[in-house]
Amino acid sequence: MRLFQAYRSFPWNPDIVTVDSLDNAVSLIAPDGDIDLVDNIKSAIELGEAELQDLEIEEDDGIVVPARHLKSIHNHVFPNQGWITQFRGVPVIHNHHMTPDHDIVNTLLDVMEKNSRIYDLDNLEDWYWDFSTVHPFRQNNSIVGNIVVSVISNFLCDTYLVALEEGVDISGQCGTLRSQM
Predict the structure, then answer these.
(1) Among 9, 61, 152, 160, which residue's CB has the most CB atoms within a 10 Å radius?
(2) Which of the pair, 105 or 139, is modelled with greater confidence?
């Protein structure tokens, strides 16, 4: 269930692809090839996978993504940027979407934490949609969101999913393009 429909002025569905390996997922998440970024993304996914494996998640509980984990991922991937540990304090327009007021980002993430349980890939797509709508960081939200999507999709289904940004060339890199899961 998408929680924040009212914050989108036009319909949007993420383009989500299935990839056959962690390396292909990372190459789509960090298409510029920056070696440090690639290494940090890969290690963040591996750490997330290990953490999920260590948790004893009951089928009825679902997976919850707390705001503090989003900050940890962002800080892990971008360790040398001091503003990382904070959510955005400015308005942002991203792909023609005016994000919710920055003063309510923490409140919206609390709502997500309480109401977004991920049991399957449909719930995961809804989580990504809500996360992208809130756009909690000034920059690099798609990287953080994709790390979460890749970790959880691999945990649930032994496959990596990646949500593409507009203009990403996927030829020869991944499986079926999915606009809806």
Answers:
(1) 160
(2) 105
DSSP letters spanning 40-74: HHHHHHHHHHHHHHHS---TTT-B---HHHHHHHH
Handedness of CA 151, 93, 17, 120 (dihedral sign): positive
pLDDT at 173 over 50: no
- Positive or negative, the CA dihedral 97, 119, 122, 46 is positive
- Measured CA to CA, the distance from residue 124 to residue 180 in angstroms comes to 11
Indicate the SS3 state at residue 142.
helix
Please report the pLDDT score of residue 164 as a whole number.
86
- The span from the CA of 126 to the CA of 115, in Å, is 11
CA 15/CA 72 separation, integer angstroms = 25
What are the start-end ranges of the E strands in 50-138?
Answer: 93-94, 97-98
How far apart, in whole angstroms, are the C-alpha atoms of residue 149 and residue 141? 12
How much is the pTM? 0.88
**Distance between CA atoms of residues 87 and 141, nearest Å:** 10
Let me know if 41 is exposed, middle or buried by CB neighbors in 10 A (0-12, 13-18, 19+): buried
